[in-house]
Structure formats: C-alpha cells, structure tokens
Amino acid sequence: MLYTVLLDNKNYLDPMFNSNQLDRLVGALNGETLENRIELNNTPRSFSGVFSEPLQIDFPVFKKAKAKLPIPDIAASEGRLFINKKAYDALYDLIKNDGEFIPATYSGGEAFIFTPLNVAESIDALDTKLSKKNDWGDLESLSFHEGKLGNWVVFRAEFNAFNTLQVTQAFVDAVKDNDLRGLYITTNLGSIFTSERSEVSKLN
Fold it and tell me: What is 128-185 written as a DSSP string?
C-alpha cells in the first residue's frame, strides 16, 4: 500500500525556512542563486556542501487562531520533511537510503530537513496509463507500479513536479509506532489538501 503524507496544519504549525539566513548563506535571490535557494527549489537534488551551518526553521504564527498550536515532530512541506531529533532517531535507518538529511535547528533544538532523492520515473515506476492531468495541467490521479519500487520507502514523481511525498506502509508504521506527531496520510496519491477529511487519516 502506498500513501501520500500531508502536514496536519489544523493541529500543528507550518515549518518555514528563514529567508534572512539563506540570503546570508547563499546570497540574495537572483538568477544565479536560485538553484541553491532551497525554499524555492524542491527538485530532488543534493544540497551537500551548500550550507555552512544548520538551516534555521521557523514556525511563524500568521493567524491568531493558531497561536497556541504546537510544533510538529514531523511535517511534510513542498516535497520534503521537517523532522525533529526524536523523529530522526526513529526514522533514520528506515529512510537513510532514500534521500539526504540536511542539518537544521529550530526553537526546540536540533532538527533535520529530509530531501527525498528517489524519483519514480527514474526506474519506470510511474503508471503512465493511470496517472492523469486535466486540460489545465492540474493533477487528477497519480499511480505507480509498486512492484518496481524495490526497497524504496519514500519517493517523489516528476509527474506532479515533485510536490508530494509518497511513502510505503513501513513508513506509516514507524511514524505510528514512535508516536511522531504532525502528519496526515491519504491513499489519494498526489493530494496536497487535507480539507476532505473522509480521504485522509491522522497519524497519532
């Protein structure tokens, strides 16, 4: 079984890269620095050696109603994962071969940004017959040949611009077993919304 993971933004704050820090580390945003502006570049590429210090992750409160919401243990955003130290310790061995851990820091201490580097199309695992877009280019359905995924636990697809994380049952079980809070899952692969509660399940 495959799932797409979503941020539980009804009950937790959203992670955000600190743009002032990125200005300092890679330069102000322009055509030459865009490739290394991680907050704008969600492609499955390595950022090893780009940042000279851990990335600062903020959890801003933009609405009064969210002022008392907690920071998640794990959050999905733009095809990546924010994971705190607890989540890192629980998931490292499971997903270490699926992408890159970028050191980060937040108000709660040590953290990581996980960038998945596995792309379904690279192993012909995208089901091109069942994956469809509408006339405006919006995703209608996303499907994969599960038998071709091998030992992959986390992966993305170029078909939907790498915007969502697809995971296996092993990932879901690890999140549940370690009481990691902050995610929804859905079998509606490629979904980026949690508004349809009938289509999503809260993890912990």
Answer: TTT-EE-TTS-EEE--B-GGG-TT-SEEB-GGGTT-SEEEEHHHHHHHHHTT--SEEE
